[in-house]
Amino acid sequence: MRTVFLVTRHPDVARLGPELERAGFSAPAITPEQLANDEASPTADVVLLDLRDIPPAAFNILSATYVEEGVILIAMVAGEQLDRVTVDLPIDDFVVLGSPPEELARRIERALWRKHGVDSENYVRCGALAIDLSNYRVTVDDEPLVMTFKEYELLRFLAMNAGRVFTREQLLNRVWGYDYFGGARTVDVHIRRIRAKIEIHGHAFIETVRNVGYRLVPEAKKELAE
After folding, report:
1. N or C: which terminus of the chain has fewer CB atoms within 10 Å of its end residue's CB?
2. Around Cβ 23, how many Cβ atoms within 10 Å?
3. Where residue 91 sits, what CATH number does that domain have?
């Protein structure tokens, strides 16, 4: 599970933690003072900075430690300040304060994809599986596959987070949306259909983690012939 530090002393931002957790992230809130005192271990994948009151010492920690570790930095600013804010840090993205949790989760995902999961040609590749994000195409061993939109979105999400396990509820939230009222069986049905299409030529891409959910393996495994 990816970890997102919410660096803030404001309750409106701290309350985003549970929403991000429902989207599949671990999202503890820490104060700028904790960050400045280096009380938080730099094990986060993403740091969300509430720029309303970040002390200089916190920026020093971010520059000296977090940036060197390749941690993604996303700044949260007031809408009227978006065009005027300047930060002496390599910020990966800016988010307007008050944005809905769904948008924030998608921005975090996109930042992770840009930094870790997508090549220069805008492809996600997992072994023989390739997803062309620009043209919504999926191929296995260069063979094009026909997929519905939801099948594509579910496969894309799993591929962008290859190696991570997601519960059915998390997949429902991330692919179908927080307002979707269908049951977890919807995920099982789509996973079965996706497998039937992509797991050809002896490839096995999607693993079922018993009593938990599903993950897409970073490198496809060849199934043993019987």
Report:
1. C
2. 22
3. 3.40.50.2300
